[in-house]
């Protein structure tokens, strides 16, 4: 789930960065959220149900 969110945020960031030069702050916030989501995905890993 986090990986999907991260990928969507990265795509939105890239689209906003290359297509629209407006809202630079929002674009960088999306990038930071995507990086945090990716890191969280790898740190948390898969949860096993006992």
Main sheet record: none
> How much beta, percentage-wise?
under 5%
Got a strand count?
A: 0
What is the residue-mean pLDDT, rounded to a whole number?
76
Helix content: over 70%
Rg: 13 Å
Show unreliable segments. none
What's the overall geometry? elongated
Question: Secondary-structure element order, as H and E?
Answer: HH
Q: Structural class, please?
A: mainly alpha
- The end-to-end span amounts to 21 Å
**The number of domains:** 1
Counted by DSSP, the helix tally is 2
Structure description:
The chain has 50 residues and is mostly helical. The protein contains 2 helices and no strands. The protein has one domain (2-44). Helix content is 78%, strand content 0%. Helix 1 (2-19) packs antiparallel against helix 2 (24-44). The mean pLDDT is 76.
Explain the layout of strands and helices.
Blueprint lengths: L1 H18 L4 H21 L6
Helix pairs in contact: 1-2
Sum up the structure in keywords.
single chain, about 50 residues, 2 helices, mainly alpha
Quick summary:
The protein is an all-alpha fold and 50 residues long.
